[in-house]
Amino acid sequence: MMIKISQIGLMLIMIYLFCSCNMSDSAEKIFGDYVYVTESSQDHFIIGGRNDIPPDVLAYEFDMHFLIAKQKPDIDVLIIKKANELFNTYEKGQPHQNESLYLKFKQYGAKDNRHENFKIAKLIAKEILVKEDPMYKKYIENPYLYWILYRSTDDLQGPLTKEEYEAARKEMKIPDKLKLD
Amino acid sequence: MSTPGNDHFIMPFGYMVEGTYVYLSADRLGTGKSIGMKRLEAYIYNSMMEMAEAKQQKVIEIRFAAALEMINGYNIGLQSIVSSYDFPGMMSSQMKSGYFGGNYKHTKGEGQKKKEYTTPNLNGRPPTRKEANLHYMYGNGELLDVDLAKVDLLFLNPTDFNEKVGTRKVVQTLWSSDDGRVFGNITLTYIGHDKVIATYGFDIYDFDMHSWGNPINWVRNAATIYGDPGDGTPFRINFYGEGRISPLPAWRQKAYEIINQGIIFFTPNIPR
What we know:
heterodimer; A: alpha+beta; four-stranded antiparallel sheet; 6 helices; B: 272 residues; alpha+beta; three-stranded antiparallel sheet; 18% strand
């Protein structure tokens, strides 16, 4: 009886201590360093070593040689990632190191306020991605994108369109039994 | 007081249901029994629920907080609850039409709180759990930007990333960081010089449940339910900038210094 009470007590203490929104986050090991991370019901991604397959990874399969994944592109993630790159470059750099970026920030009213400057970085990121980035076009034009990891060399290919993915499968001789859906 | 037909009304000193006026006071109900404030709150809450069920309407916005507000309203005079739920809405329209002679004052219901809520200007500071919960409840999913430099990541050091620049890692901050109860897992990339960036630059503040079919999720789900502040909208937290982690442990730094100085160690060949 005492044991049961102490067990229940321990569980209640654990629940109290764990009580947090982000108990809903989880990470599931795939192999080696690779994990499938659930950030929310719409945000799943894979990370491992120096590679990552960005959200939202809907499905993945793997064998001894390959990992394949299907992604529903999330444009917001792409923008935030780009904004971070620009923000860090701007905050660290001297004007002469990246003059065009420095001028762009100034044009948007950048001042000595990191928080406001990040908001500017998001605007510039979107502008740059829309104009220049081929990845952005892929994200916009394809409902799903695909990724292939060659395990022995840790070489990650992606994002691939459906056609590119099918061609890469043939080229890399990925067995038919390894498939998504 | 005239009978308002079959509608349901909550009034400053009681409520009307199906044409019957139920009188409430702080220490007495219509039964004549004395009750404490807590029981009165519970009584009002239950009554409201019964009324909602009688009308076969979905109970969405009524909360215990609303009952509390009614009590507070009672204590200071002619006040009552107005939330976005239907029958308090009816009450509101009756008030506006002068049914109570205009002698009333609105207190804030959930709907009003939502309308009046403005996203706090944290200036990059991580939100406290209370701030995050309020934003979840009333923020309509509006994102928050957080400066990674202001997030407590000092529980990490480069060995957590195998000391390799570019290494990504999911970090559970719940136990180790002052901000852990807000962020939970964060995915970070090591960029060298004791600094990290958020790999995808975001975190989601939500209360998603996992499958109850897996016992591993039982405590997790129980904690999620326990931590859930109520109805709300998940929101994205964008991380910007670089986070600082602790430097390498002293012994490891010393080892690198020795290696960098080119000192070669010989292992003595000890005869067996």
